[in-house]
Structure formats: C-alpha cells, structure tokens
C-alpha cells in the first residue's frame, strides 16, 4: 500500500473540474475566429434546414386529423429534437456549461397517446418558437459575422473582380453618384476590406456568444421546469434514502439477532449450567467457563465489526484520509491512496464518501480480478468560498465490464450519494481498465 497525501492545494495549479478564468477562450486569436467562421456557415445552412423542419411540422399538424398526420408529426418532432440537441451542444461549448434537455418523459402506449403527450409538452412548442426565432436571429448573429468576412474578402479583391467582369458590373459600388472607370480607380474600394475584416475579427466571438444565449433562453428548461425536476429528484432521493435507512436498520437488527445476541444467550445458558454443576463437577464448570469466555470474545468481535460498519472509529479519529489508509492496508490487493484534502469535511459527507469508496473497492476485489487498485480523493473548492466538490476515483487494472445498472453494488453507491446530490459514473470497457468516479458537493472546515 502506497499513500500520498496533500493537505493543501499547490499554488498556481488548476484543480480538476476548475473552469478557466472568465474571458479565456479554449483557442485564441485567428484560429478561433476561423473556427467560428466555419460554424457560421454550418449554422446558416442549419437555419435553412430548421425552416424546412418547421414547414414539415406545420404540414403534419394540419393533416393530423387524417391518420397519416400522426406518424408524420412524431417523425418531425424527433427530427426537431435532434436538431435542437445539436444546437444545445453548440451553446454549451460556447458558454462553458451544459444546456439541459427540457422534455417530459414520453409515456408508453400507442401513437395517439404519445402524440398527445408530445403536444402537451411545453418544450415542444418552445422548440417550434425557437425554429422561427432562429431563422431571424441567426442572420443578426452568426449570419452577420459571416457577412462581415465575405465583405472583407470582396473588397480586398475588388480590383480583380473589376478587371474580370463585364463593363456593366461592379462599376457603381456606392450608387450612381460614385462610378469607377478603370482598374486603378477600383483600388479605392480596397481599404474597405480591412475594415470589414476587422469588424469580423472583433465581433465574431461576441456574436457567437449572443447566439448561444438565444439558444439557451429558448431551448433550456425554464425556471418552473427546473423547479419541478428538482422537486421530483428530491422526492426520489428522499424515498431512496428512507429505503436505504430501513434496509440498514434491518441489517443491524439481523446482525445483532443472529450474531452477538445469539452468543450472549449461549453465554447465559453456559453460566447457568456452570452454576448448577459447580458443587458436583468443578472440571465441567471449568470447561463451560472457557466456552463462555470464547463466546464473549466472539460477541465483542462481532459488535466491533457491527459498530465499524455503522461508523468506523478511525473515520471519527483520523478523518477520511486516515480511514482510507486503513481501508487500503486491509485490502489483499496492492492499493495506492492519493488524497488532496484541505482539512476535515462534514461528518455525514466523510461517512458517505468512506462507504462509497469501500463499496467500490469491495466490488473491484470481488469482480475485477485486478492486480493493482488506486484510490484518488480530492476536494476542488469553488472560487472565493469554502464550498466545493469532493471527487473520488477508484481505478483498477482488472477485466472491466462494470456497469451501474449491472448489479446492486454500484446502484447502492449511487443511492447513497444521491442523498447528498452526489453522482456516480463508471468508465469500464470490456478488458479494462475500470474507473469509478464519484462526486459529492460539500464544504470544507
């Protein structure tokens, strides 16, 4: 077992999950603008496609009274949602934060039931409103940026166009009051090229950002929808927490009944029998007392294990760092522990993190056939606050194939973390390696 601990974050080193400083683009300068130029062309073509989808949907809804309109409406809805998802991804890349899908679940059933559910979904109508708005606002955002670039290239090459085109073309670029008679005079239009290119260069990112804001405002969930989803999530999390607590209480009761309680009953019977045999058979009493002492030791050991399963004493004494070290020392597979914690975390968070890592470690020992396991725990603070994100990773070089929906182990971890708004993801391709990533929002002390 190897352990590496860091009690403070290194200065100047960005932590995982930390966003870049505001205004810092992934790529800067001309390469970024050229990339946005390509996206402008793609989005302009997409605006035309969106107008076609809008026409298809209006047509399908118009003929929905005819049964052929039902599958046509469902098909157009699927296409529009796919089209909107592409734009959500574009907006998320530009804004640096995900744009969630706002759609309500579609119930199982026949086409009429599914169509009715889709038509009742407010997000469906917002998609159509966005198609209309996108066909207009697109020309004032990425369309305007693309136009600036084309104008810049056009005016830079104006003398060449003047020389290659017929006499009646490109002779009055600013109206009949300004007529060009020769190629030499056409060079007067060239300075407009750098002006338009400068406009393109300085406004490309702002216009793209504005377009992303429009997309998010129409395609992201509304505040009311987010509140409904949050309430549903909290209700599900509370139900799972209650079920988990009830299961833990049943486990504790079963362990006490089948373990320590049974041994204490046996101890009482042995002491009672020894009391009866004491005047007549001292040797038998001695044997009974030895058995009673063994039962006492076994009962104490089971009680210690039970208490350790509820809340390990080492976790209370030494914190999450020391508890994970002790967990790795008891592991039959070589285990490396790397922790980057600024201090103690709240006790409920430490307990949830410890048992989540312990369960993931037990799964790796039982199923992965690994030769080495690494546990990495780090706390990433939000700038200017003590709150942050506790990230835990359990990695192994085993056979892979672990899935959160493939057994009760990872599902149990996900339920435990959900009570704290935590998440679990598994990256485990067949053949390995496997990495179980868990996160908990919390605050450091």
Protein architecture, described:
- The protein is an alpha/beta fold and 445 residues long.
- The chain contains 13 helices and six strands.
- The chain has helices spanning 30-62, 69-95, 111-120, 122-140, 142-156, 158-164, 183-186, 192-219, 223-277, 282-310, 313-329, 347-368, 408-418, and strands spanning 2-6, 335-340, 373-381, 387-396, 423-427, 434-443.
- It has a six-stranded mixed β-sheet.
- A hairpin with a 5-residue loop joins strand 3 and strand 4 (387-396).
- The radius of gyration is 34 Å and the shape is elongated.
- The two termini are 28 Å apart.
- The model is unreliable at 1-27 (pLDDT under 50).
Task: Report the major sheet.
Answer: 6 strands, mixed
Number of beta strands? 6
What does the radius of gyration come to? 34 Å
What average pLDDT do the residues reach? 75
- Uncertain runs: 1-27
């Amino acid at each position: 077992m190897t352990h590496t601990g860091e009690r403070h974050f290194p200065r100047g080193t960005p932590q995982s999950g930390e966003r870049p400083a505001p205004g810092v683009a992934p790529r800067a300068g001309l390469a970024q603008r050229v990339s946005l130029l390509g996206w402008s062309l793609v989005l302009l073509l997409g605006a035309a496609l969106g107008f076609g989808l809008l026409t298809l949907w209006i047509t399908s809804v118009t003929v929905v009274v005819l049964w052929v309109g039902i599958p046509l409406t469902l098909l157009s809805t699927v296409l529009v949602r796919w089209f909107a998802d592409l734009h959500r991804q574009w907006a998320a890349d530009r804004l640096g934060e995900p744009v969630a899908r706002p759609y309500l679940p579609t119930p199982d059933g026949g086409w009429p039931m599914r169509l009715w559910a889709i038509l009742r979904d407010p997000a469906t109508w917002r998609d159509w409103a966005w198609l209309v708005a996108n066909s207009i606002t697109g020309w004032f955002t990425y369309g305007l940026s693309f136009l600036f670039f084309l104008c810049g290239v056009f005016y830079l090459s104006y003398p060449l166009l003047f020389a290659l085109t017929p006499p009646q073309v490109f002779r009055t670029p600013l109206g009949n009051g300004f007529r060009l008679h020769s190629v030499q005079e056409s060079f007067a239009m060239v300075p407009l090229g750098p002006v338009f290119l400068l406009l393109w260069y300085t406004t490309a990112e702002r216009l793209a950002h504005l377009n992303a804001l429009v997309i998010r405002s129409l395609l992201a969930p509304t505040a009311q929808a987010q509140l409904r989803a949050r309430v549903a999530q909290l209700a599900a999390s509370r139900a799972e927490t209650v079920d988990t607590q009830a299961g833990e209480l049943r486990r504790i009761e079963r362990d006490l009944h089948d373990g320590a309680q049974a041994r204490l009953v046996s101890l009482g019977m042995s002491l009672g029998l020894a009391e009866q045999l004491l005047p007549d058979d001292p040797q038998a009493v001695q044997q009974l007392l030895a058995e009673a002492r063994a039962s006492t030791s076994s009962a104490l050991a089971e009680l210690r294990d039970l208490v350790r399963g509820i809340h390990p004493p080492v976790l209370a004494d030494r914190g999450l760092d020391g508890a994970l070290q002790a967990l790795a020392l008891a592991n039959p597979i070589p285990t490396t522990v790397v922790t980057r914690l600024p201090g103690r975390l709240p006790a409920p968070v430490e307990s949830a993190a410890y048992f989540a890592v312990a369960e993931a470690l037990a799964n790796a020992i039982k199923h992965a056939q690994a030769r080495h396991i690494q546990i990495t725990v780090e706390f990433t603070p939000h700038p200017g606050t003590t709150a942050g994100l506790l990230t835990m990773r359990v990695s192994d070089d085993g056979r892979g194939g672990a899935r959160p929906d493939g057994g009760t182990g990872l599902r149990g971890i996900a339920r435990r973390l959900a009570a704290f708004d935590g998440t679990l993801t598994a990256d485990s391709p067949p053949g390995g390696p496997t990495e179980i990533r868990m996160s908990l929002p919390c605050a450091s002390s």
